[in-house]
Design brief:
Layout: H1 13-19, H2 23-26, H3 31-34, H4 39-51, E1 55-61, E2 71-79, E3 87-93, H5 95-141, H6 145-169, E4 178-180, H7 182-194, E5 200-206, E6 214-216, H8 218-236, E7 239-254, E8 257-269, H9 297-306, E9 311-317, E10 320-328
Helix pairs in contact: 5-6, 7-8, 8-9
Length: about 350
């Protein structure tokens, strides 16, 4: 409850938890200061004071010393006519609910994308063999070296398309799972990219030393992490900070399955961010903002994680893009390539 100056008159235990402050310390404090002067909060409070109407809105609360991650909340504000209060503010933390909805959308997107690219890949691959064979037969009938250049182009371009289609189809076969240290995998990926000229890129590591080994297909997971790290490096364009972070998360739901504990691996960069008009489609194949990109890195990485019962999600804004790999610690043995 707030007075006419938007100072806190009282709050219940749920509000104490969301705001990270006790009622005794909160009395007389500005609610706006406690939420880092969130503009939407300021707007909704002042509108109710001025109009006397009820307002509700969903908004993001920035991270604080108490809550180290950004939160999504439903905020409802109503006028009051008590002796010392003029506003009732109801805040509901809907971060996890929003995340579950987003994860389900990503799973649906991945399923649709996977089915589309497999159908497309098979349709393309079938005639490519015939084109290559015909070009080889034609080359044998030609005595002119200049004409051989044309058949060589047909053969090489056909081979390039076959390689692209194979990438679309993804690595074949079910995962060959063995106990793997995720941090060792990440360091292996770092060694791969270290051979490239990264100029002024700094790499930070924030690993959870208590994270146990996980039964994973090493080659498939190296490819998934490499795709994500290379995307981050491309966004940095030779300058900035790449952060690799790991932690364990308990009671986490991926799709319809609730896991007792999962590994959460984050690849973060401080580049310009993903364009807003692309954020809903980055996991679809052939979607890219880079002229030299194929748009296959993220769909392939998502496919490889799905074979391990995992999921890749992300959030992006200018100066901070984070791709989060969620992997169940307790892997099943029934995973297949379908």
């Amino acid at each position: 409850m707030l007075d006419e100056h938007l100072l806190i008159v009282g709050l219940n235990p749920a509000a104490e938890n969301i705001l990270g402050i006790s009622q005794r310390r909160a009395e007389g404090e500005s609610l706006l200061q406690l939420v880092d002067d969130e503009p939407e909060m300021r707007d909704i409070l002042t509108r109710v004071v001025e109009t006397g109407d009820h307002y509700a809105n969903e908004m993001r609360l920035a991270s604080t010393e108490v809550h180290n991650e950004e939160r999504i909340v439903d905020c409802r504000v109503s006028p009051l006519t008590t002796r010392d209060s003029c506003l009732l503010v109801e805040i509901t933390d809907v971060t996890r609910r929003t995340q579950i909805s987003r994860e389900n959308a990503l799973l649906i997107q991945h399923g649709a994308g996977r089915q589309m690219i497999r159908q497309l890949a098979h349709e393309i691959k079938n005639p490519l063999g015939g084109i290559r064979g015909a070009a080889q037969l034609l080359a044998r009938q030609l005595d002119d070296d200049e004409l051989h250049e044309y058949t060589d182009v047909v053969i090489s371009e056909t081979d390039r398309l076959v390689a692209l289609v194979d990438t679309l189809l993804g690595p074949g076969g079910p995962p060959n799972k063995q106990p793997v240290n995720v941090h060792e995998l990440l360091e292996y990926v770092v060694r791969i990219i270290a051979a490239e000229d990264q100029r002024s890129i700094a790499i930070r590591r924030e690993y959870d030393p208590g994270l146990p080994t996980i039964d994973l297909d090493r080659d498939q997971m190296v490819q998934a992490f490499l795709n994500l790290v290379q995307n981050a490096l491309a966004a940095l364009d030779g300058q900035g900070t790449l952060t690799l972070r790991s932690r364990a998360v308990t009671n986490y739901t991926i799709g319809n399955i609730r896991h007792r504990v999962i590994a959460s691996i984050e690849i973060e960069d401080d580049g310009p961010g993903i364009p807003a008009d692309m954020q809903d489609s980055v996991f679809y194949p052939l979607v890219t903002s880079r002229p030299e990109g194929t748009g296959l890195g993220l769909p392939v990485a998502q496919e490889l994680l799905s074979r391990h019962g995992g999921l890749i999600e992300f959030e992006s804004r200018p100066g901070r893009t984070v791709f989060v790999v969620r992997i169940p610690l307790e892997q099943t043995t029934s995973d297949s390539n379908d």
